[in-house]
Input
Amino acid sequence: MAQDAGWGGGAYTGAPHGGVPYGGPPGWGGWVPPPKPGVIPLAPLRLGDLLGGAFTTMGRYGKQLFGLAAALYGGALALMGLAVATAYGAVGDSLERVVSLGYDEEPATGDASALVITGVALGLLAFVTMLAVTGLMYAAVPAVVQEAVLGRAVTIATVWRRARAALMPVMGTLFLTILIVFVPMALLMAGFVGVIAASFSTASGAGGAVVLTIGILGAVATGPLAMWLWVKFSLAPAIVVFERCGPVTALRRSSRLVSGDWWRVFGVLLLVYVMAAVAGYFIQLPFVFLGLFPSMLGSASLDDDPTLAAILAMTAGYFVAMMLGQLASQIVSTTFPQLVTALLYVDRRIRTEDLGPVLAEAAGVPRQGGPYPPPYPPPHGAGQW
Output
């Protein structure tokens, strides 16, 4: 069985053995628990199974998950640090002159334009870098779960190869999902921009208030729809990896799988994202306190009129500690929710497409009695796993 084999997609209608898992209906003498070759039982998953499967995956495949995440986010942080250092070497003099200006002094046109261009370039580089790293992690986590469900080993090189192959489709699904969620935010931002524009104009502020009201009402009206669509499409990044399909196909497939169980999927996702946010906050706290000490010690040695270089040197320790804390927090806040999301995908296919026996066959679990479905043709057969 090829280790890179996909899971297969498509629609399967009906459980051929009536949805009964293994060994007959519950309560009968021949009933046996469903097999568990990997991190979850091959049966419909409860909340405890989803969370337990995610934590077990982090324990068993920590090197693959956190090692790759640390390398990706650490590489992105190092790249941005190098870019900032290079930019400071190029426009450091302009920055010194602008910072040293008084409140009533205007910066030179050359200094202002150099700083603006450099800031925009650094912002674009940070956006593209973080988008690529996030896309790789959204692709790498399902690649690990694909093997963890079956209890199979997987190397970092294999996870990296699969994540790199799925990067562009995963980024496409993320981009489309962000566009959907961005609609109510854009309406609200448009309202605030209208108020600001009206405040600088000679006309009365009534027009700005009307624009703000329209923006708020538009956000309230479209916000629930955006949330509903976000949950419907939440499984799409995992589907890209599991089923090797494009962004639009993955969005449609996610919508079909979530259909009929929207509230449960929403509740699970809300819980895991809150858990990840809380964990990320507590991870960052020690780094914040650690960064305060060198800053306080450095401030005691500053002159009455410190230079920009001296100020940057004083705050360097704080920023380094903050970046390290953000790095550790980002690894957890990205990895854990995607683990649960990937397991939700498996759960929805077990519930709607009776995938459990197919997974048992793919994992090499011997049959335990009871009715079994006939062999599945592609794309649902074990060979497509």
The first helix runs from residue 47 to 60. The chain is about 70% helix and 0% strand. The CA atoms of residues 174 and 237 lie 7 Å apart.
